[in-house]
Task: inverse folding
DNA sequence: GTGAAAGCGCTAACAC
DNA sequence: GTGTTAGCGCTTTCAC
């Protein structure tokens, strides 16, 4: 930072005080429109650049929100961040970005950084590694607004924005039933994560709603990797009663399933249907293209940002208000992998 | 921000001055280790939280760098940002993120935001829409370090980090020649962007280096979309002499080419080879999997961050130094779409 | 509608 | 090795 123009320079030239200049630049209604005009004119003339740091220090508002994600390289989080940034920047709020790389210790460091930067609020998605969330609890003690998105703690009473995994899973399974599949399997993920638990529950509920008996043999648990999907196919084809469709809790496992089925020369979608979850970019482009459940990532970011900003603004006035949880609608994307009996 | 503990509170309790506390917290060598210990102990006891804003205002260093990208939703930029953040946060620098959405006016606004936030330096990738870059030039006038990555201006004298598009294209084309393709086409992009121009030049150079005559009919220009790729296949198969391989300047167009070839039941890679550029995630998962040129996105981010940080640190001492341009090695990823004559 | 003056929390030059 | 002092550039009472 070089020696730069300050409001005092403007004040001196205009023979008024810096207080008036400050008010004029902030369109304070008590300042005459003529003074405002003069000040802004002079500011432009002198190439004045406001110092947001000084303003923050004095006013106690940083106009910055901290965004903590596992990794910007993951498509999902990149999209959410895009949504967050769109809303924030349109409201003049800056984004401080921090990546946890799925590590709890970096997560703690991130909160420290946000606290030192005096962010007005925090948007975060929890690292996979994290089991104890006391570092997040400290935030409520310090009265700094926090909204969690996508990854949350079931027993942590904080506003969240998630998509309805249960409903998405229900709809995906119902879709498989609707198009005529009879014996529907599920590849499920780590149950400690509420997302995957809800997807399993949604799957089960859809079967029940259609009076289809539940067969535990048809539920394959894994890490939802491509490899896991391939392995699940081996497993399913080893059963006495082979399924004719599968709902995978994530697209990468669905991709593995498709690969496994192709190796076995199973005809999709006629002899076997596959639907995933996440609507990853590759889904549209593989063959057969993959039906999936879209998580409305950008919308999730926008919604979380709006919620946080509301909290920031209202915390000025009221102190206690009820926790808000926002649940977004999952969107069914029907593609070739389940396009049996359907004119696409 | 609530009323919080300051260095004065620590000073009072310890019956020393706030100056000493400040020095102790910053491990100033002139302070006795005993005092440092006591101060840090008391700080922890009082739950002291340093105020980075006050520190920045006084010291003139924000310890923040501005990162401007078209969109965090684009895989490429998400990955670069990941690399940038990894380096920065390990050095205690914060990231202020701004998206241009490919718009020049937002780009200008972003620079304004960075200037007001008094960032120590800026990393940016230019919006597609931008033709006049005077807003970037203002930064050099203000002596704020700037590094451009991926998208740059040929005639703008500023440090850049890019991958060697020319070499990547050369290597991709050479690979097609090596595995035995004879008549190699190119799908090229907007030539005003240096990236695509360099890829075209690399393609031509490889042909020349192998004494293959250049046929302008084999160069199809488009927007590099999937649709563009499909259209290029129609075009190529309308020629008297049909090519037997194509180097596409981006993966999405390569995907379109693969789709077009599949529709025509052309055997890949035996009768036709396809190689793309960018190494998008989907490339591994489509069928045939797509050979491509990897752009080392995370490495690009890390490199750009390191370069900027060097500039920030050296600008303290020297004022004039020569512009540094860093060119990263493109990485050839051979997959099924060109795996003729190769044991993969 | 504008001025005067204090101070946000920290750092750093200058003492000794 | 520590104290003293003076701000960084802005906002914000309190005047009138």
Result:
């Amino acid at each position: 930072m070089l020696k730069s123009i300050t409001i005092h320079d403007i004040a001196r030239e205009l023979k008024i005080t810096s207080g008036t200049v400050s008010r004029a630049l902030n369109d304070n209604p008590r300042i005459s429109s003529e003074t405002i005009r003069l000040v802004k004119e002079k500011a432009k003339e002198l190439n004045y650049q406001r110092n947001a740091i000084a303003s923050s220090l004095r006013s106690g508002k940083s106009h910055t929100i901290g965004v903590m994600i596992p990794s910007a390289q993951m498509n999902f989080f990149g999209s959410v961040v895009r949504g967050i940034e769109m809303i924030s920047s349109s409201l003049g709020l800056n984004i401080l970005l921090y990546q946890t790389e799925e590590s709890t210790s970096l997560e703690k460091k991130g909160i420290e950084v946000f606290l030192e930067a005096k962010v007005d609020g925090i948007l975060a998605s929890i690292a996979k590694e994290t089991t104890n969330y006391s570092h997040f609890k400290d935030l409520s003690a310090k009265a700094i607004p926090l909204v969690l998105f996508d990854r949350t703690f079931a027993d942590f009473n904080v506003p969240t924005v998630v998509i309805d995994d249960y409903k998405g899973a229900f709809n995906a399974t119902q879709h498989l039933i609707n198009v005529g599949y009879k014996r529907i399997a599920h590849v499920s993920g780590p149950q400690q994560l509420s997302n995957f638990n809800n997807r399993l529950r949604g799957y089960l509920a859809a079967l029940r709603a259609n009076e289809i008996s539940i067969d535990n043999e048809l539920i394959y648990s894994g890490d939802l990797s491509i490899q896991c999907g391939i392995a699940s196919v081996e497993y399913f084809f080893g059963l006495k009663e082979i399924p004719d469709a599968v709902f995978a809790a994530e697209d990468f496992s669905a991709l593995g399933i498709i690969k496994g089925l192709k190796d076995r020369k199973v005809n999709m979608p006629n002899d076997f249907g596959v639907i995933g979850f996440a609507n990853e970019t590759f889904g549209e482009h593989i063959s057969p293209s993959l039906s999936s459940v879209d998580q409305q990532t950008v919308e999730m970011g926008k919604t979380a940002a709006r919620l946080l900003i509301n909290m920031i603004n209202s915390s000025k006035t009221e102190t206690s208000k009820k926790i808000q949880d926002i649940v977004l609608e999952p969107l069914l994307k029907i593609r070739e992998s389940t396009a049996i009996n359907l004119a696409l």
Remarks:
- Chain A has a mean pLDDT of 92.
